[in-house]
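Project outcomes to date are best conveyed with an example. Our students and postdoctoral researchers have been running inverse folding experiments weekly, and each run begins with a structure described purely in tokens. The record below, which covers 136 residues, was selected by the lab manager from last quarter's runs and is presented without edits.
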């Protein structure tokens, strides 16, 4: 099935995938920053990425820092191949260097944002600002 770019974010259509833990921890502040956002979640990291690739959501945000390399490398490769942006909250590319990974657990230190360019450009700064209110 080919990648499907969704319509630009609007009041009627602004689906953002965010995991259950991230909804609990950050959903309220993100919703304040992006009142038109429609949050939803489903299964694994890979399933969420595929929903973005297929245009069911414009953006997937992963903030809780527990995802392991073996859960992300394949889905990130598919997202990039489909033309999606894969970055952190600062807009920096996802890194796989020893400095960017917890070496004992093999989890990402960076937050992960995966989405279509127009979603990332419009929403990433708002999400970053909202999340920064809750982080030291």
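After processing, the design step wrote out the following sequence:
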């Amino acid at each position: 099935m080919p990648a499907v770019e969704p319509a630009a974010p609007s009041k009627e259509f602004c689906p953002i995938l965010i995991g259950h833990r991230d909804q609990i921890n950050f959903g309220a502040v993100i919703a304040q920053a992006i009142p038109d956002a429609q949050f939803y979640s489903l299964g694994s990291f890979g399933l969420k990425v595929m929903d973005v690739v297929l245009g069911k959501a414009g953006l997937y945000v992963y903030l809780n820092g527990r995802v392991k390399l073996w859960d992300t490398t394949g889905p990130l490769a598919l997202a990039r191949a489909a033309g999606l942006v894969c970055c952190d909250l600062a807009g920096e590319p996802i890194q796989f260097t020893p400095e960017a990974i917890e070496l004992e657990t093999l989890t990402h230190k960076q937050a992960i944002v995966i989405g279509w360019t127009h979603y990332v450009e419009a929403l990433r700064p708002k999400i970053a600002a909202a999340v920064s209110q809750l982080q030291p």
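The longest strand covers residues 15-18. The beta strands are 15-18, 38-40, 59-62, 85-87, 101-102, 107-108, 112-115. The training component of this project remains on track.
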